Amino acid sequence: MFLVSLLFLFTQVASGAPLNAQCGDSIMVESPNYLTSPGYPTTYPPSQNCVWILKTINKKIIVEFNAYFMLMDTNCTHDYVEVYDGGEETSPKLGRFCGTVAPQQLVPTRNVVLIKFVTDNENEGAGFSLQYERSEEFAVCGDHIVIEPEGSITHPAPPFGVLPCQRCVWVLTTPEPNQKIVVGIKRLYNFFETTCKEEYFEIYDGGSEQAPLLGRFCQRDPLPVISSGNKVLIKFVNGFIPRRFNIKYRIQEKVECGGNIAIEPLGHLTTEGYPMTYRPNQHCMWVLTAPEPKYKIAIKFIGKFYLANSDCKHDYMEIFDGGDETSHLFGRFCGSDNPSRFVSRGGKVLIKFVTDNETAGVGFSLQYDILKKSINCGGKIDLDSQNYLTSPGYPMTMPPSQHCVWEISAPSPRQKVILDFNENFHVGGTDCKYDYVEVFDGNSEMSTSLGRFCGTVAPPQLISTSSILLIKFVTDNETEGMGFSLQSSGKIFCGGNMTINSPSYLTSPGYPSNYESSMECVWVLTAPESDQKIVVNFNAYFEIADTDCRQDYLEVYDGGSEQSPVLGRFCGTVAPPQIISTGNSVLIKFITDKNKEGAGFSVTYKTEEKVDTQIEQYCIDNTHESITNQALSPLAAICP
């Protein structure tokens, strides 16, 4: 085979045809093929740094070099080719090769191989040619990854299929040695085992299985774990049933007990060791400082919160609305209930954490952010960077003589803007003449008003008809009330009403690629006649990425409205069975959250074929067994 390939190469050179001059590529290995270094079999060019990535669907890859191999270097420091057992240069290296002796056949263990070719600034050698082909052996899954600040591992990675009886190992390493890694396992499809014997995850506090075990998991969405150093090993063991899952990870700087934190948007803070048990005899104080004093600081608690005891005398945390303990105390918290969301009045917040000489809690994890827009009286807000705003001074008394206008824009022109007001709402009196908040459906006060609101009853949810909303806030020269706080978001609304005149189909937007985030699609299918039924069949390639059908899901209703009976709510990777309505209408509803995960769905629909009334009644009144002479009745032959 290689002799034929080599003759073909020399034929190309003699004819003047270009020869595989591409320096690097990403290649899906489906049939035997070859690649060469640029210029092969003549002299390769100088100053090359080429990377090829070979990939298969769950199978190993065989790599075999042509005997005509010439990289003119004796110690492989200037000109060389490297082969890695994985898709990163942090993956295990199978070898660095140079000289004139071709490497032996290589069979990596994974389904991804990285080949790197490096030359210095001189022209020396013919280079290399190699053949690659897919093995019939299944590959070992996993990899070595130097992680970004945040990332995820989806298994299996599209378009790869799910396999039973797998053992996967990922080693995650941070770029800096003084960093930790937070690992969470999400979206465990079809995980029901509780003993963790046949199928489980193990997370080790280091780069090998000899490191301390942080935990073994088989339940859905277990609590995240945090490493003590800058490496973790994640091992996945699967039984005979194929599994799908997503691993989320992020870098966390090592947290000492307290300190000054100059914050930027969306930072995290946890007690040491969270979510493992915290240490005794701690007295920690963190001071969060915004980039400018006029900015506010928002704090939201995430994950599990547990500080032992319920009287907040021994273990507790306190939040002060300022930079020291003389500032206003927002609250002292303990027990297992997450504290409510906190918004500061100024640009500093102090967080105090105290424990006694016993250990009995996991501590807390919180997210902090700065409010650049809400402290200013008005401005433009891009929903990509900020999804909440407050009136000036909130939640304290609002200042007098305000006239603030905010323009809120969704990130996509296809999205509409949705406003959800916090129930802690108090804007002036009840006549809405002097103190009020008004929402306009567009980018000016000439747009249609969606409502003017005041008093102590929060406005209902408001939805724009385009991708822009305008919010106007007015107060007179007296102060009355705390003002308002609201959450804003963008959502795509799609769907339609369809009369079924012939068999057809519909798909989720983007199918079979990943669907978009923040969508609400509603389709109503109606048969032309009232006595017809509708048959809905799902494509087997079905992927709605959720485990409990709460964030991303598909619902089918036996009728034309959401008040009709629900025929099912579906998610995961198993397509729903055939659905037949009892009437002539079906409603299909598709909801997604802020994450883009999953291919979505495709369905075909048609009206059920009607049985002639005479035939149907005859078959009800008679059976084959009761008909003594079928020849006397031509209908008898078609009865079931």
Describe the structure.
- The protein has 640 residues and is mainly beta.
- The chain folds into five domains: 2-138, Jelly Rolls (Sandwich), CATH 2.60.120.290; 142-252, Sandwich (Jelly Rolls), CATH 2.60.120; 255-371, Spermadhesin, CUB domain (Jelly Rolls); 379-490, Spermadhesin, CUB domain (Jelly Rolls, Sandwich), CATH 2.60.120.290; 500-607, Sandwich (Jelly Rolls).
- 4% of the residues lie in helices and 40% in strands.
- The strands form nine sheets. Strands 28, 30, 33, 35, 37, 39, 40 and 42 form an eight-stranded mixed β-sheet that branches.
- The protein is globular.
- It starts with a helix and ends in a 19-residue tail after the last helix.
- 33% of the residues are buried.
Radius of gyration, in angstroms, nearest whole number: 32 Å
Number of strands: 43
CATH class of the largest domain: Mainly Beta
Number of helices: 2
Strand content: 35-45%
Could you tell me how far the N terminus lies from the C terminus, measured between alpha carbons in angstroms?
61 Å
Supply the number of structural domains: 5
Uncertain stretches of 5 or more adjacent residues: 1-20, 624-632
Q: What oligomeric state is this?
A: single chain
Instruction: Summarize the biggest pleated sheet.
Output: 8 strands, mixed
CATH architectural grouping of the largest domain: Sandwich
- The CATH homologous superfamily of the largest domain is named Spermadhesin, CUB domain
